[in-house]
Design goal:
Blueprint: E1 10-21, E2 24-35, E3 39-43, H1 50-57, E4 65-70, E5 74-77, H2 84-92, E6 94-97, H3 109-120, H4 125-138, H5 154-167, E7 172-176, H6 184-199, E8 204-207, H7 211-217, E9 220-225, E10 228-233, H8 235-238, H9 245-256
Parallel strand pairs: 3-8, 3-9, 6-7, 7-8
Antiparallel strand pairs: 1-2, 1-4, 4-5, 9-10
Helix pairs in contact: 3-4, 3-5, 4-5, 5-6
Length: 258
């Protein structure tokens, strides 16, 4: 768990975030903040809105209302029409690691991870390739640079997904249940990479059901239910001594499964 300064200003602030899909109101006014270098674990039952929060931050969904601030130079108010430039700047501040990898099947590992920096950010091809090779070596995939995704295990594909996110040089890394699609024996490799990133000071927002991992890596745990934040605080409180009855029920039920 990386130490962070409790007095530091938040890097990411979310205020009053609302999102509905038709008549289904998924987010009902979510507030949260993340300081630089902090790891925040989002936990809660399926359908509580955790993934939708990440998708709103990454520009995959547009909130119906609310405000998102990243650092001192990006502030987007979704209660009014958002200029494309502001939406793009918000999207550029984060990078997403998906539950089901979302790699391009017709591209090699190297092509997958340099696509964004070269095509979207306009970085030189040679520079992107050099950085990609360094990062792939770091996660133990140097020998897979020319392989296609179907040749990789789920754990290897997810590590490629993490490298792809790092290549975008984001302010905030977003992880959507990064181990839930993996065979149990492959989970450890991915969690080790995420833990190493936390120790290096990356700012991360992680949706997870791995309570042991959240307890070990997260600075803060946010429990969501029915589209709102029910409880948030240090892991020792939210996971070890939850104050809200709904949180107690969820944590007890999840711990009883393992």
């Amino acid at each position: 768990m990386s130490p962070t300064d409790p007095a530091a200003e938040p890097l990411l602030t979310v205020t009053g975030l609302h999102k509905a899909f038709g008549d289904n109101e998924v987010l009902k006014g979510v507030d949260l903040s993340v300081r630089a270098g902090e790891v925040v674990a989002l936990i809660g039952p399926s359908g509580s809105g955790k993934t939708t929060v990440l998708r709103c931050l990454n520009g995959l969904e547009e909130p119906d209302a609310g405000r998102v601030t990243v650092g001192t130079d990006v502030e987007v108010d979704f209660s009014r029409a958002v200029p494309k430039r502001d939406a793009a700047r918000l999207r550029d501040r984060s990078a997403m690691v998906f539950q089901h990898y979302n790699l391009f099947p017709h591209m090699t590992v190297l092509e997958n991870v340099v696509e964004g920096p070269v095509r979207v950010q306009g970085r030189p091809q040679a520079e992107a390739v050099a950085e990609a090779e360094r990062l792939l070596a770091r996660v133990g995939l140097a020998d897979k640079r020319d392989a296609y995704p179907f040749r990789l295990s789920g754990g290897q594909q997810q590590r490629v997904g993490i490298v792809r996110a790092l290549m975008m040089r984001p302010k905030v890394l977003l992880f959507d249940e990064p181990t839930s699609a993996l065979d149990p024996e492959l989970v450890g490799d991915v969690l080790t990479v995420i833990k190493e990133l936390s120790e290096e000071g990356w700012t991360m927002l992680i949706v997870t059901h791995e309570l042991g991992f959240a307890s070990e890596v997260a600075n803060q745990v946010v429990f969501m239910d029915q589209g709102v934040v029910v409880e948030q605080g240090p892991p020792r409180v939210v996971l070890g001594d939850p104050q809200h009855e709904r949180t107690k029920q969820f944590v007890h039920r999840l711990q009883a499964r393992f």
